[in-house]
Amino acid sequence: MEWSLERVREMVAGGIQSMRDCESSAFGTAMCLLLLFVWYCYRVGREHSSSPLRGGYSTEPSRVGGGGGVLISTEADGRAKGRPVSGLEEQNGFAYCQSTECFRCTNTGEGLNQRLYHSLQDYAKRYTWSGMGRVHKGVRDQGRYLTSRPTIQRPEVFFLPDLPSAPFFSRDAQKHDVELLERSFPALLAELENIYHAPPARAGSSLPPGWKANSTPNGQWWTFYLVNQGTPLALNARRCPRAWRVLSQLRTFIANNVFGNACFSVLTPGALITEHYGPTNVRLRCHLGLRVPSSCELVVGGEPQCWSEGSCLLFDDSFLHRAFHEGSPEDGPRVVFMVDLWHPNVAAAERQALDYIFTPGR
Fold first, then answer.
1. What is the pLDDT of residues 36-64, one digit of tens each?
2. N or C, which end of the chain is more exposed by having fewer CB within 10 Å?
């Protein structure tokens, strides 16, 4: 049953009046305390926003991190704000992003650690410290964890201690979502064809609407984001209603914090994504193969794997990883549908706290 704010206020006022009328009555006191508890539950419930993927999308623009069910109606490349499209620079063999829109590039160092700790304290005051042991340990010792990690696994933003680690995970780690994605292969492939072969967004551009070009030392790497660092993109979602519906049905998609992404990712023949680390170990990156020519490979933590059309690969991108397409132009591009899922050993209470701490725009 749902109560309006006015109804709850009326009940609280009535309870207070009952206590005044029956000052010596234990029943009046108990009733007042009960109604005050109802009021508290109502306020807490109001503060918890539902996943933005559950309520569809709105055509009205919204501020990043505003909560609710409204999508951000801006293009993925951010050109309207005069920001650079992307900035991947190769240093010592690794790819470093320099985009001003990237959370992990603009939020590092001691200042970030302090903000994370204050956000965790604020969360615990509002809700609970129960189940926060690993999160508290991770936030408190974040600087030490990030600098002392072996070079094979070194997340750039946040490390949650005591999580099982491996470059690749079995499909059973997130069986429901893997099977749902694989059943959706025909629909996602058809939607890819619609957006990939659309006319260019504007004169002089080689990219169809919604696509973003990423810098690579060789070849081309294009991405079409539905959710970018926890921010849904309304224009792209409208172009891909079936893909958006699939996202809303996933049980473990990271929909409410900056570590969550969902996109179509295209590598042209000859393309190389240089070795780099992901921002955190609390997620598993899932690739559903849509178009997979021969001579394409993903290497994570030194372990090579090949994509397969209609099948999912689950890997921990906090390990050093790279991808390449060594096929000929006649082979065509390699395309995957990429989504970020929760690591299966991150508990529900920890996920809720991390959603709060890493809310987009916080």
1. 665 555 554 444 444 445 444 433 333 22
2. N
Instruction: Note the pLDDT tens digit of each residue in 285-331.
Output: 999 999 999 999 999 999 999 999 999 999 999 999 999 999 999 99
Instruction: Give the CB-side neighbour count of residue 310, counting CA atoms within 13 A.
Output: 2
CATH code at 168-346: 2.60.120.330
| Tens of pLDDT, residues 88-143 | 333 323 333 444 445 555 455 556 788 899 999 999 999 999 999 999 999 988 87
Residue 26, number of CB atoms within 10 A of its CB: 8
CB within 8 Å of 301: residues ≥ 6 apart: 152, 153, 166, 167, 316, 319, 320, 321
**Up-side HSE of residue 14: CA atoms within 13 Å toward CB?**
10
pLDDT mean over 328-347: 97
Q: How far apart are CA 339 and CA 263, in angstroms?
A: 7
Mean pLDDT of 262-285: 96
Write down the domain spans for the chain.
Answer: 168-346
Q: Which residue, among 193, 178, 171, 342, has the nearest Cα to 260 in the 3D structure?
A: 342
Residue type for 162, please?
D
The beta strands (E) that lie in the chain are given as 88-91, 94-97, 168-169, 211-214, 221-228, 231-232, 262-267, 272-276, 283-291, 296-300, 303-305, 312-315, 321-325, 334-342
SS3 state of residue 312? strand
